[in-house]
Write a structure and sequence with these properties.
Cofactor: Mn(2+)
Strand content: 5-15%
GO molecular function: manganese ion binding; superoxide dismutase activity
CATH topology of the largest domain: minor pseudopilin epsh fold
Binding site for Mn(2+): 52, 100, 185, 189
CATH architecture of the largest domain: 3-Layer(bab) Sandwich
InterPro entries: Fe/Mn_Superoxide_Dismutase, Mn/Fe_SOD, Mn/Fe_SOD_BS, Mn/Fe_SOD_C, Mn/Fe_SOD_N, Mn/Fe_SOD_N_sf, SOD_C_sf
Strand order of the largest sheet: 4-3-5
Enzyme class: oxidoreductase
Shape: globular
Number of domains: 2
Helix content: 40-55%
CATH class of the largest domain: Alpha Beta
Length: 224
């Protein structure tokens, strides 16, 4: 099982584990990227990565900490009305933090190509072929109305891979029960500066930086 808290070697900061384990009033922090902002060029440019990470993700983290603090106060007071009213903020900002923490590790300057081993076999079993899987996840991601995410998840109950779309920042596991393996962010802030409103071009490019090593590690972990 993943530890609740781990240390980031570069900053020495305590980070919350990517799968969103909550630690008793441990403040959430913005995780460092495992590569430079410009490392994913030409597929995703440095300006997008910098804004996406240091502004958008940072905002989710800050707002999540604020919402949790208010929720803690509401719990202490036994104020159920306040607890209920805070749930959308917890879901949105908590989901934003969980989703992006996974997303950064799903990408790599050494990414692209196809997965190997057990993950590739599972993809072939559940989707017929890697090409078929790629086409299906791309189509689901293109088809997200407004803002949201396309996901490859693991259905633990059925022991198979599944593709799903989530609206806004809804976290995959918290809203569908699927364990997240690969997330594709299709909010406009993830691509607009480079690809304008042509989401399919961004989705075509992102396959060149998918870290199959990371996705495979996540698959191996959730099968244990």
């Amino acid at each position: 099982p993943l530890p609740s808290v781990f240390f980031c070697p570069r900053s020495g900061a305590k980070l919350i584990a990517p799968l969103g384990c909550l630690v008793s009033r441990q403040k959430h922090t913005l995780p460092d990227l495992p590569y430079d902002y410009g490392a994913l060029e030409p597929h995703i440019n440095a300006e997008i990565m910098q804004l996406h990470h240091s502004k958008h993700h940072a905002t989710y983290v800050n707002n999540l900490n604020v919402a949790e603090e208010k929720y803690k106060e509401a719990l202490a007071k036994g104020d159920v009305t306040a607890q209920v009213s805070l749930q959308p903020a917890l879901k949105f900002n908590g989901g934003g933090h969980i989703n992006h923490t996974i997303f950064w590790t799903n990408l790599s300057p050494n990414g692209g190509g196809e997965p190997q081993g057990e993950l590739l076999e599972a993809i072939k079993r559940d989707f017929g072929s890697f090409a078929n899987f790629k086409e299906k996840l791309t189509a689901v991601s293109v088809g997200v109305q407004g803002s949201g995410w396309g996901w490859l998840g693991y259905n633990k109950e059925q022991g198979r891979l599944q593709i799903a779309a989530c609206a806004n920042q809804d976290p995959l596991q918290g809203t569908t029960g699927l364990i997240p393996l690969l997330g594709i962010d299709v909010w406009e802030h993830a691509y607009y500066l480079q690809y304008k409103n042509v989401r399919p071009d961004y989705l075509k490019a992102i396959w060149n930086v998918i870290s199959w090593e990371n996705v495979s590690s996540r698959y191996a972990l959730c099968k244990k």
